[in-house]
Structure formats: C-alpha cells, structure tokens
Amino acid sequence: MSPITGKALVAGVVGAPVRHSLSPVLHNAWIEAARLDAVYAPFAPPPERFAAFVDGLRGGAIAGLNVTLPFKEQALALADEASSPAAKAAAANVLVFRADGTVFADNTDGAGLLAAFAAQAPGFDPAAGPVVILGAGGAARGAAAAFADAGAPEVRIVNRTLSRAQAITEALGSRVGALGLDRAATAFDGAGAIVNATSAGLADGQVLDFPLEAAPKACVVMDMVYKPLRTPFLARAEALGLATVDGLEMLIRQAVPSFEAFFGQAPPAEVDVRALALAAIGAQA
Ligand code: ATR
Question: Domains of the chain, with CATH numbers?
Fold first, then answer.
C-alpha cells in the first residue's frame, strides 16, 4: 500500500447502514493499483443528521462522496448544482465538494446500468425496442431516465402501486408509461430489456413472480440486486434462455465515473474489481 501523506486526497461513501457497501473495496483497490496518495472511507451518520454531515464537509474536508441508501434524494436536494442525470433521476449517488464550498450533485447509476448492458449483453441496443422497468422507487426512476436518454422508443414502468409509476411518467415525459403489476405480461410483450429495480426479496425473502415467459426470446433481463449474484429472477430468465445482466456489473460501472470525479483520473484497468467484489460478497454472506 502506498503511504497516505498530508497531501492525500480524501473521498468516501455515505449510507445508513454503510457496512455492506462494496464501494470502499472497489475504490481502495484502484487507489492502491494507481499508487495514488488517497484514501476512501465509509461514513454512516445518523440519518437525521445527514444535512449537518454534508454541510460540515463544505469546509474543504473531502473531495467527494458516493451516496447510497437512504440519502440519495436528500443529497440532491442539499447540493448547489446538479447534473442532468441527477436531476432526471431525482437522486444523487455522487457529491463533489468544490474548493469554493459549493456542492455538485451527479448520478452515475444510469451510466453504470447502460455500461453493464454493454459489457454483459453486447448485442443489446437500447434504441431497438421498449424497455420495462419493474418498480417505481428512486432506482427505477434513474433507470427509466437513463434508457429514455439512450433512445429507448418506449419505457414501461410496472409497479405494485400504480400511482408511484404514474408519478415517474409525469416527470419523464411521453415515451415513459405506467402499468400495474397485473399488466406485467402486456408490458413484457415485445420488450428489448426488463430491469428489476424493486426491492422485493431484499429483506423479506420474497421472490418476484413475474411472467417472464411473455418476453421475447431476444429480451435481456437485468436485476439490480447483486446479492446473490444469480438472483431467483435472473435464474428464471436463464432457464427461459434469455440473456442476463447482473447488478454487480452495474455497481462496478457506476463507480468508474465516481472515481474519475474524486481523483481526476480513470481507474487502472488491470484491477479485477469484480473478483474482489465477489470475494467481499462471499465474505459477508
Ligand atoms: P429505491 O428508492 O431503492 O428504488 P423504494 O423507493 O423503497 O426503493 O422502492 C422499492 C420498489 O420495490 C417499489 O417500486 C416497491 O413497490 P411499491 O411502490 O408498490 O411499494 C417495490 N416492491 C417492494 N417490495 C415488493 C414486492 N414484494 N412486490 C412487488 N414490488 C415490490
């Protein structure tokens, strides 16, 4: 490990909880391989003191932060300026602290999602057909915005609570539509991609029971959940012969522009961060 000096750049990730975040594993592996004088640390302020936490960093303590649950919406609201992806997603996963004390919010999740498709489903063209997003929380909204920006002719948001899906369609424009869970088979008809952005199964062991057999054979299925890497949803897609993209690839790909924003250079390509992340997931299991 290269020494951390008095000139070290400092960045980190903030969440509540943050202990399972893979971001320190990824960024510190890159820092070490690039022999940067830098450190990337986890922060878990009490949720009710998040605003005070961010405000304190305006004094120049840190180059930037990745932001994870439950702070992504609040991070955007606290920033002085936001990128277009952050504004469209209504959430920030990156805060950059500028020398003048102002805070810039960005969102690299959408770029990470598209890069994960490019890596694991190279034949996929977002502009070639309708894309289905399952869920209507912050993750779903960001995904819908990313696919709409990438030229998807139609984005179909399917959610248990229809009104939440409709709220996203109102924000993102005419190519984005909303359907209830009972219309999932209709939504899957002709779809080029289906992305699970719900939290179902994360906490309560519930398995998503979507009619994937209604999807075309060329449809690519993605799950933002990466623990386990092969979720029951992805396993069902595979059993139907559909190509899949996993959530770990998205996590890794969103970290790349974050690293660039904090440390001013691209992460070294030779580090197998996927293997490191897999080992860390295994260690946490
Ligand atoms: P995030 O901001 O991380 O995306 P969220 O706002 O909690 O998370 O959203 C979770 C999403 O998962 C919602 O779309 C939720 O559906 P509702 O809007 O109807 O609550 C969806 N979800 C959670 N558990 C689910 C389940 N068992 N079946 C179907 N959808 C579920």
Answer: 9-107+254-284 (3.40.50.10860), 110-245 (3.40.50.720)
